[in-house]
Amino acid sequence: MKYTQLGRTGLKVSRLVLGTMNFGPQTDETDSHAIMDSALDAGINYFDTANVYGWGENKGRTEEIIGNWFAKSAANRDKVVLATKVYGNMAADGQAWPNHDKLSALNIRRAVDASLRRLQTDYIDIYQFHHVDRATPFEEIWQAIDTLVQQGKILYVGSSNFPGYKIAQANEIAARRAGTIGLVSEQCLYNLAERRAEMEVIPAAQEYGLGVIPWSPLHGGLLGGVIKKEAKGGRRASGRAADTLADPAKRAQIQSYEDLLEKHGLEPGEAALAWLLTRPGVTGPIVGPRTAEQLESAIRAVELELSEEVLAGLDETFPGPGPSPEAFAW
């Protein structure tokens, strides 16, 4: 496994991030623990989750699965850089009260303590804002975060799904507070098929020293060889991938992508991950394996070097918007 610094911090993290969103809803606890064992054995030390994972009446279940894995061995927790998120409403369905979500100081305090209990740990390495809270000023948010850092409950803070201007706003306000480190990472939707983050989010992250953590690196399976799998009688596209393939022009684009990689003897999913690892500002993509085989495929991508011909072909197939303002002005 290869490692890099997380943004401007001294924290060393693997170039793949283990996403755990499937733990619980699609992968049972036993298999989830096996995947975490395999990830750690392969050198992946960056694990990502969120308090709402498990979803619906099972919100929090994913954190519980991870916590039970930590309870098996103190070495597991010691080796892992643990990231979780706050924002979503964690009250039982039908019992939501006004302060059970978002980024008020009250909810941050409540949510971090609940995550610590579920995760069976006394600190979180990277505590992430899962979404922008337009109603709560960053002065309040940073005051709550400073208290948690002083208490030793969290070490760093990251964002997720933030536009570029909010990254700038958050860190400019943090800079005015003595001792507040500000955001050190941003999780954003970024892959070959969805490159809008290149306009402002990634440049803002680079300017302020945030590590970029792309989520959905295969765009819901669309970049994982979905047409080829369908032709071989494999799992059919669903969700976002199925909606995209219903558009003839988009389907032709994905077919061109798969043809390009087949010509060079490359697996589409591995190539899509390898492409992200070449992108400026990217720390490492989040991979969310449902099975051990999917994890093994993702790990191979770290060692995969794409030729200039392949990189040029990918850019031609999926042209990015370019940075702003040139993306929309002269």
Walk me through this protein's architecture.
By secondary structure, the protein is an alpha/beta fold. The protein has helices spanning 29-41, 61-72, 74-79, 105-119, 138-150, 164-175, 201-207, 226-231, 239-245, 248-263, 268-277, 292-302, 308-317, and strands at 3-5, 12-14, 17-19, 46-48, 81-86, 124-129, 154-160, 183-189, 211-215, 286-287. It is globular, with a radius of gyration of 20 Å.
Feature tags:
330 residues; alpha/beta; eight-stranded parallel β-sheet
How is this structure best summarized?
This protein has helices at residues 29-41, 61-72, 74-79, 105-119, 138-150, 164-175, 201-207, 226-231, 239-245, 248-263, 268-277, 292-302, 308-317, and strands spanning 3-5, 12-14, 17-19, 46-48, 81-86, 124-129, 154-160, 183-189, 211-215, 286-287. It is of the alpha/beta class and 330 residues long.
Write the layout of secondary structure elements.
Elements: E1 3-5, E2 12-14, E3 17-19, H1 29-41, E4 46-48, H2 61-72, H3 74-79, E5 81-86, H4 105-119, E6 124-129, H5 138-150, E7 154-160, H6 164-175, E8 183-189, H7 201-207, E9 211-215, H8 226-231, H9 239-245, H10 248-263, H11 268-277, E10 286-287, H12 292-302, H13 308-317
Parallel strand pairs: 3-4, 3-10, 4-5, 5-6, 6-7, 7-8, 8-9
Antiparallel strand pairs: 1-2
Helix pairs in contact: 2-4, 4-5, 6-7, 10-13, 11-12
